[in-house]
Design a protein that fits this description.
This is VanZ-like domain-containing protein. With 128 residues, the chain is mostly helical. The chain has one domain. The chain has 4 helices and no strands. Helix 2 crosses helix 3. The longest helix is centred in the first third of the chain and has 25 residues.
Length: 128
């Protein structure tokens, strides 16, 4: 029973995160509040993209069970989602940016690399 609760919680968190990512990526331009922050420089959005897809990869890795395929699936789904979002942005008046797609891929790959190097046997990635 606890196993199912943990599995369902992981799914809810993953799909909620994807929903938030879609909402923030597809909302019409000009609705963002202007806040002075450390991300106030040219191409600062690339850091946000990297972080967003780094986190997405963490959540996707918790979702998949088969250890041999989870890295490939995670990278594929994260990159596919990033490409689809960039294409959809054209239809909501936002700018299509191939560099965003590349940085999204690096964010996804970055966490998977981190996971392979340091996190395979950590408690946060193993389900009981």
């Amino acid at each position: 029973m606890i196993k199912n609760i943990i599995k369902n919680k992981d799914r809810v968190i993953l799909f909620a995160y994807i929903g938030i990512l879609l909402f923030l990526s597809l909302k019409p331009p000009g609705k963002e509040p202007q806040i002075d922050s450390v991300f106030d420089f040219a191409h600062a959005d690339k850091i946000k993209h990297f972080i967003a897809y780094f986190i997405l990869s963490f959540l996707l890795l918790r979702f998949f069970h088969n250890a041999r395929e989870k890295i490939n699936r995670t990278i594929f789904i994260a990159i596919l989602l990033g490409v689809l979002i960039e294409i959809l942005q054209i239809f909501v008046g936002r700018e299509f940016d191939i560099l965003d797609m590349i940085v999204n891929g690096f964010g996804a790959w970055g966490y998977c690399f981190f996971f392979q190097k340091y996190g395979k046997n950590t408690r946060m990635h193993t389900r009981k």
